[in-house]
Amino acid sequence: MNVLYCGDGNIERGLIISVMSLLKNISVELHVWVVTAEMDFNGKHISPVREDVISSLNEYMRGYNSLNSITLIDVSEHFKKEVPTVNMGTRFTPFCMLRLFSDEVPEIPDKIMYLDNDVICRSDPSEFYNQDITDYELAGVLDYYGSWFFRRNPFKRDYLNSGVLLMNMAKIRETGLFKKCRKRCCEKQMFMPDQSAINKLAVSKKICPRRFNEQRKLRSDTVMQHFTTSFRFFPYIRTVTVKPWDIERVHEVLKLHEYDDLLSEYTVFYNSITNNRQ
């Protein structure tokens, strides 16, 4: 199983949890690619994913299967050539757009599952991963909120959430989808830049069942749970954002204990990396 994560150093905690959750639910080889970058922008330094996190995860993964692997790829030079300046100030980290540079990385295989770092695998995702997408650029699940408001077809919900995607990289390279998306992100300001660009420009995308990217709340058939921002309407309208590594808030706000064993193991693992740096 090939899996892709993208981002700066801020994804490290989620990356660890997400990879651990995959390992607990699959029986096949796992090969992970982490695309990162670093740059200075508006007086702020954006740091990449650190090597010690990757080396520690590599050792951990091989404890499950000696053939497992994780590879860190720096695309700083690619990013600096096509900096999406008009979208660098959104509420989303600029480097979430790094997934749009994956077609520039020859090491990334023709079929790969992209996951945001706030996605936890709850059960075996093989059904999602093994589906035939020969005729599609990518496959994903409707965005819980966005599919009602953003759609190319006014009579059909077709706006995908980009946090869980099965990507046909061979076709994406052939159609130039990500190249077109990068250009759009450089020229047009958007609320969710890369997700919006993908939905606007993808010619062929496959819509999959909700259970493969549950963005609202845990359900009995959930395969992958995505800890996105959600709306609450009682006692007043507000947004709520809780990430898996905010363990106390996972318990108190979400009332969720499904992943306690996983999060306990993550805590020990992450603390060991932190302690080794001191």
Distance between the termini: 35 Å
Enumerate how many helices there are, as a single number. 10
Counting DSSP E segments of at least 2 residues, the number of strands comes to 13
The helix/strand order is EHEEEHEHEEHEHEHHHEEEEHH
Poorly predicted tracts of residues: none
Please bin the fraction of helical residues. Answer: 25-40%
How would a textbook summarize the main sheet? 7 strands, mixed
Instruction: Tell me the fraction of residues in β-strands, as a range.
Output: 15-25%
Average pLDDT level: 91
Strand order in the largest sheet: 5-2-1-6-9-8-10
Anisotropy-based shape: globular
- Give the structural class: alpha/beta
Radius of gyration: 18 Å
Could you please describe the fold and organization of this structure?
The radius of gyration is 18 Å and the shape is globular. The chain is of the alpha/beta class. The two termini are 35 Å apart. The strands form 4 sheets. Strands 5-2-1-6-9-8-10 form a 7-stranded mixed beta sheet, with helices on both faces. β3 and β4 form a beta hairpin. It is built from 10 helices and 13 strands. α1 (12-23) packs across α10 and α7 (177-187) crosses α8. Helices cover 32% and strands 21% of the residues. The mean pLDDT is 91.
